[in-house]
Amino acid sequence: MIWKILSAKYKIIKTLSTRRFQQDPLENLFGCIRYNCGSNSNPTVRQFVAGLKTAVISNMAHTSSGNCELDSNSAIITNFKTLLTPATDICTDIEQSEHVYQIKKEIEESITSSLEENLEEGSSELQACAYVCGFIIKKNKISCNNCTKILVSETPEGVHNFVEFKNYDNVKKSLTYASKNLIACVEKSASIINIFLEKEAYEENIKMRVTQLLKDYKL
Length: 219
Known about the structure:
The protein is mainly alpha-helical. Helix content is 58%, strand content 0%.
């Protein structure tokens, strides 16, 4: 039936390997997983994943009680020595310090060129940043008068053009106009984080390292 349908629809098909339609490979896989789960017929997700990992590591060892044909595939993992040998390329403290210094140097160079482009009042980056800064100020509900003078601009400037366009009420002025210093600080912080993530996103403790990096720059 299948051959008739396929041969009629696809003239290019000359042969049909019916072995590909059998479910023995699938049964073998689940048999290995069940075997590694302690014959648990209803494992949890975590138990299933653990059983699958064990099955992969053991190269899908075939159980003696199975009634399925053995798979003829080559071993999944052929070099256990490489897999189980501890890595020797772990950075020492000195190498790590040099690496951190190099990253900071690259970030500093990238930020300098980036800020020269983005801190122009007419740039879309800075206009969008000014809008976000206004939202941050409004969200935090600052009650300190001195803080407000530092963070909020009393009158709109060129950097606030986008904010003014977003302001639906020209009289009430519901949106907040952030100061240039705050906008520059947020833009620089965003640049530092973006550059850092491009180079170090695969590392551990990303949040802690980014926080420390921002503190080091004394923004």
